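Quick look at the format.
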Amino acid sequence: MRKNSLLLALFICGFFQGFAQWTPITLETKASFRAIRSHGKHIWIGGTRGTVIHSSDGGANFNVRNVPGADSLDFRDLAILDDKTVLLMSAGPAENGAAKIFRTENGGESWEMAYQIKEKGYFFDAILWEGKQGLILSDPAGPFYGLIRISNKGRDFSLLNPASYPELQKGEAAFAASGSSLQKTKQGYYIVTGGGSKARVLFSKDALNWENIYSEIPGGEGTGFFSLGVRDAKNLWIAGGNYSRIKEGPVPVLESLDAGKTWSPVANAPGYYVEKILWADPYWILSGPAESSAFDPMKKRWISLGKSPYHNVCRVGDRLYGVGGRGQIGFISLSQIQQLFLSKE
């Protein structure tokens, strides 16, 4: 009996070490969340039912609100312009009134609809802010992806007309999963795609002239690259999968050390559906609705962060915050992750 008790204790210890690293945060909401970004100590989260959550103290306290007039909208991404100014991006068919941008300039005390497009085909996937201007990525409504330039602190929006671009594949689109299908580095802009016969990486120095720089991985309906992670202008990661098979990894985790010119598989990468890749110095973080993992590039080692439900993650100080379905929000510290790596040595 003592032997069995010892085995049980070891099993429980091992279980919690492998699957209970994230600390859940309980808030009064059942909305599902995919949008999360940080700016200093400010954390902004967006989700279904027009729900927006804000913390101004690094996650010590959260305020849950609903944007007036947005009850039917799903905020899949957001852009933080400064401590008070935020843009919320709703994802959904434009012809159904779902392609909208809401703006606050008083820290969420009030919101106004800053932009809407109603043309059939538009479906916003991601939004980014570059300091003085921003960019919205939309699914194709014509021969190429929709690109909308943002200026004047989020007050003005204008459709771009790319001068050159590769031909779209049948069914090709970007995924509005974690706001990381569009990224910007010192080199230029990147879009990762899926849905077509090949998952692709597209690149442009100026958002007007685009080229296909990688298309070696099979795609298909619901399958492709969902996220591009940036460590620096040269070191990039891409990953994804199929959103209907969250415990499988039909799309490999790939790394580029030359700004996307060449890509190679990351050895021993986990095989599950990845919606977000994040560089959280000194680790790469992968997260999807089934699991999350960390990779130490110095030691070339992976570690599981558990069976977590988070579509998206962001870093605030020593902590990573994750958001998922049915109001699930949680955090884990980089210090914890370091200890997990040390415990495996």
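Next, a different chain entirely:
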Amino acid sequence: MEDVSALYAPRTYNDSHPLLRAHPNRDASRERLVQGSPFMPTVEAPDKRETRPRRPSAGTHGRGKAPSTMVRVGALRGFSALVKSLDGRPEALLRRHQINPDTTRNEESLIPMRAFVLLLEASATSLNAPAFGLMLAQRQDIGILGALAIVLQNAESVSEAMRLFARYLFVHAPGIAVTLLERSPSGAKLCDLRFELLISDVPTARQVTDLGLTVIHRIFRALVGDAYALRHVSLPHQPLAKLSVYEREFGCSVRTAQPFAALHFERTLLSHRLTSGNVALRNIGVAYLDSRHQDPKQSVSKRVDAALRALVGMGSVSKTAIASALAIHPRSLLRKLNAEGTSFEALRDDVRRQRARQMLVSTTVPIAQVAGLLGLSEQAVLTRLCKRWFGMTPTDLRRHADGPRTHPKRLSVAG
């Protein structure tokens, strides 16, 4: 079993790092830095009819708009070395997906999230490595988050660290969202840390989901130490690698073909104190991020989108339920969405479309159950929606989905 302790070994920054320059006592603080360093609305009855939504106007809400679908090159840390270890050619794979290999030398550079997703999927297939996402995660550490790493390492508690992580993850990857639910629907004493990919124009995203969940797991395991433990993990797809590979990595049971990707843990972990933190450095880090980055989730449409993503799969939610979750009057919510050039129906339709594609392409969940998870009254409604969304029925979409659901040969992942 691989010794991963070296991945989290602290290294020091030089004086040029902007957070050290900003700190009033940088000499005393330099050694503390590491390089690179709930809402639960009422679930209402399922929709009984299909409603054709009004689509967002150009320049407002919608996927595919820069910079919301970009990711820092830091997310590719270890990619070239991993590909070479599997007898592959990393430069060829990068160029095939319109990523200049020279760009990967600067972890602060941005690359399209879609290219990143397709690159990992293609790498897993061409290298016969179904656990490629997990394998890449083992070559990464908290340093891939850049300045956000400093903020997390100086949080006072697990709860604060997770909230800061969810709040500022857009700095690292605007195309990814993480949500902390303090009351998990999967257990009375559990919390969820959910992972969501915010793009829809990819056939599948197994590897990025595996990579994201595993990196998050490893980051918080390193931050928390011995007190960290997961109860179980949810995957939104049918994994290509053996389930034992995932269970060995996470140290707990793994449930597949779930409505969302999430780490589940005891709620008591949130109050655990992190002893190595420095409040002054945390505050400087937060101010640094706030001054240089604007959170794209500040818009009402983004907040509604996040709420829908967290709750689709637990039954349908109405305008009233989402408004209650966001502490906004329903009429005010609709006015604000209209001012942003979109509508509640358009946002819900978009989330349902993405979730339907994910479940139909990446899992073997029965089609009738997919309809229920989307909050639809019957399978016939899902069939009508799929014809509008994809130009084919759910059965045809599943039949034409790329990627085998069998287990290819190379399965081993160092733990």
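The longest helix spans residues 206-224.

See the schema section for token definitions.
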